[in-house]
Amino acid sequence: MLVTGGALAACGGSDDGPAADGKIHLTIATFNEFGYENLIPEYEASHPNIKIEQTKTGQSAPHHQNLLTKLGAGSGLADIEAIEEGFLSQVLDKSGQFNDLKEIGPADVKPERWLKWKADAATTKDGKVIGYGTDIGPVAMCYRKDLFEAAGLPTDPEQVKAMFATWDSYFEAGKRFVDNSEVAWFDSASQVFNVMQNQLPTGYYDTSNNLVIETNAAIKANWDKVTRAVTEGQSAKLVAWGPEWNTGFKTSAFATKTCPSWMMGPVEGNSGPENAGKWAITDAVPGGPTNWGGSYLTVPKQSKHPKEAAELAAWLTAPEQQIKAFKAKGPFPSQLGALDSPDLLSLANDYFVTPNTAQVFASQAKKVERAQFKGEQDGNIQDNVIAPALQAVEQGTAPDDGWKQAVEGAKKLAK
Amino acid sequence: MSEATLDVGERSEPAHRASAGSGEPDRRQPRSRPTFRQRLSQWDVKYSPYLYIAPFFILFGVVGLFPLLYTAYVSLYDWELADDTPTFLGLENYVTLFGDAQFWNALVNTVSIFVLSSVPQLVIAVFLAALLNTKLRAPTGWRVAVLLPYVVSLVAVGLIFSNLFGSNFGLINSLFEMVGLDRIDWQANRFASHIAIATMVNWRWTGYNALIVLAAMQAIPKDIYEAALVDGAKAVRRFFSITLPLLRPTLIFVVVTSTIGGLQIFTEPKLFDARPGLNTGGSSGQFQTITLYMYQSAFENLDFGYASAIAWVLFVLILAIAMINFVITRRLASTGEDR
Asked: Where are the transmembrane segments (chain B) (predicted)?
């Protein structure tokens, strides 16, 4: 028993105690692409007593699963943990396990650095700031100019804006489009529904954390609109992020796409060089400007060097660094200083027909009025209940049966 | 410390006596008090064997038995991840589970995928082994060839097969269309999705099982076949009356291991889902297996109590089905003594 006990103990505590080189070792855990690869050496060069190690997880879900598990275990977290907005409410719930950055962070980092709604979302009811905002996902609409032309739809930006004024006019145009084309109008019902859902003042929960999927008529109304479009053949029925969805971009299987800023990369990468100069971007989002996604950097109480970690997090989320990260990997800055910076606004992407894509997203970001309140299981319901239910409708389930599946699934998750 | 040791010593005494035979006088009451050295050598004889085999049992206890029992303990609670104060529920998790439509759906899916994969897999493996057992040129080359799928990373297999079975742009649907058949939505249709997943399993495991069966076939003495040949038995008769019965112990082993693996199938259905990372097994649970449901309960819904209950039901189920398979296989491949 002694032998195994010793072996187990040896596995546990390697990161305690002072580092051999006398430096302070900081760890930072992120997911997807935050664009910090070149920033970290830069910080280490200006702070010779700091050594930084970044852990990257490919996808958001396993990163947060790991985060919640280690919060529960009470050890094993990095000094800085990235958190996506969909998981924010679960983290705010456990805000006692995170440092108040207002207290330990550099004094000159004020909430005014960020868009108000971005900073508000990471502030607890009693005024603690548990995360510095990194990126946001202001939504625009991407559309295939060439496919619009082929189907006889207007391509003049002003006329496209009129077509994309409301969801009703968008789906009407979609009906007209699919009647004159072999191609579908949008890629996947859930990709459209996500944007509609994000435009509502509250998500699947009300602000006192009650599940309202059944009682909030706006959710059902959106569901009805999307599923009617599906039965009209407007959906390409491609499951987002799957291999067939990727192929769908390349084979021009759909003509429009809801486009948060971070979607630019997938649109370009999946469509490939053969479709260069065909995608256009417009700031006319049916139903109005909104945000989809974005993250925060937090410093858990488990950190041995909270002050240094907060300082690093503050530096990484400063406007200059966020613009560099955006140039490197595409996470769109959430800081007012960055959104007004000529350095950002002058950026253009040749792949798209529309010049100055950065300007489109920056102006969309400022038009967003509030961060939607997302209850505890909100992100979970969106990804694991609503998206599959919409997929079921796309596979032939009756819209009403699909809705039943969605409501039951949400209730099961929320109980 | 010393008290505990003594305690253990006394408890193990009856067992020792029983094994030593009854007539002997009790050695623990010697005429004179033994010296320390004597006692030391006595302990050496008595306890050393246990000490030598202890590493296995300690490791098994720590990583095998303890998790098993702890899972049973957790399954009696409403235990959320990171919950400091779990509530005791008794058997309520099990009661909920047996009334849970999603569980029964997952159970049917699991059994269906299991049958679709295990049965053809075993039949093909046995015939493949019979083929490999004939006189072939470059026998090692063939044997390595059938084992190749097993070497390929499971994740790669999952990616390739879910592309092949893609509904819109998949190769198999394109082939179907070319020969004039209807396209199949492999993700939407419940039975079609089971076939697709079973294909993945079969592709990977058939060769592996064939090699195990082949090894057993080669151990069958040649003179039995010669005697049968003299008696005028044809190849088919020889196969069913000699080969199959003598393969019995190996077949039982293969069936039991594939039962254990087949009922725990997880990676294949998880990777088959069109949406990466989803645990629902299709849009409406068309191919959600029990293990996938268990994973969803634990790591998506963070309900560890419920997930533990699923784990235990699965454990019992595997034991039961393995027993049934054991009996059936023994019947099927009987030596014919009772005939």
From this structure: 49-70, 111-132, 144-165, 246-266, 304-328
Q: How many residues does chain B have?
A: 339
* Alpha carbon distances (Å) from B295 to A164, A369, B264, B280, B288: 41, 38, 11, 10, 11
Q: Provide the 3-class DSSP secondary structure of residue B153.
A: coil
**What digits encode the pLDDT tens for the residues A238-263?**
999 888 999 999 999 999 999 999 99
Distance CA A241, CA A58 (A): 13
For the stretch B284-337, pLDDT in tens is: 999 999 999 999 998 888 889 999 999 999 999 999 988 888 888 888 766 544
- The pLDDT assigned to B339 comes to 40
Do residues A367 and A387 touch, judged by C-beta distance below 8 A?
no
- Rounded Cα gap, residues B277 and B255, in angstroms: 31
Q: Which of B62, B83, B187 sits opposite A4 (nearest CB)?
A: B62
**A75 Cβ under 8 Å from any chain B Cβ:** no
| Contact: B82, A389; criterion CB under 8 Å | no
What proportion of chain B, given as a percentage, has pLDDT over 70?
88
What mean pLDDT do residues A267-291 have?
94
Note whether A59 and A32 are within 8 A (CB): yes
Interface of B with A in 267-326 (CB under 8 A): 273-280, 282-284, 296, 299-302
ipTM surpasses cut 0.90: no
Confidence of residue B82 (pLDDT cuts 50, 70, 90): low
- How would you classify the pairing of strands B87-88 and B77-78? antiparallel
- Give burial (CB, 10 Å; 0-12/13-18/19+) of A149: exposed
Report CA-CA distances (Å) from A392 to A185, A219, A409, B193, B228.
18, 18, 13, 14, 59
- pLDDT over 80 (residue A14): no
Q: Is the pLDDT of residue B5 over 60?
A: no
What is the CATH topology of the domain spanning A19-136+293-345? D-Maltodextrin-Binding Protein; domain 2 (3.40.190)
Question: Does A387 contact chain B (CB < 8 Å)?
Answer: yes
- Domain spanning B100-332: which superfamily? MetI-like (1.10.3720.10)
Nearest residue on chain B to A383, alpha-carbon basis: B278
Residues A399/A224, Cβ–Cβ less than 8 Å? yes
Q: What is the DSSP pairing of strand A132-144 with strand A332-333?
A: antiparallel
Could B280 and A388 be called an inter-chain contact, meaning their C-beta atoms sit closer than 8 Å? yes
Q: pLDDT by residue (tens digit) across A144-192?
A: 999 999 999 999 989 999 999 999 999 999 999 999 999 999 999 999 9
**8 Å CB contact between A350 and A57:** no
Name the region of B149 (left: φ>0; alpha: ψ -120 to 50; beta: rest): alpha
Which chain B residues are closer than 8 Å to A383 by Cβ?
278
Name the residue among B55, B83, B166 with its Cβ closest to that of A244.
Answer: B166
Q: Is A396 on the interface with B (CB under 8 A)?
A: yes
Q: Are A331 and A137 in contact (CB under 8 A)?
A: no
Pick the CATH number of A138-291+369-414 from 3.30.565.10, 3.10.310.10, 3.40.190.10, 3.30.1780.10: 3.40.190.10
Whether residue A6 is predicted with pLDDT greater than 70 in this model: the reply is: no
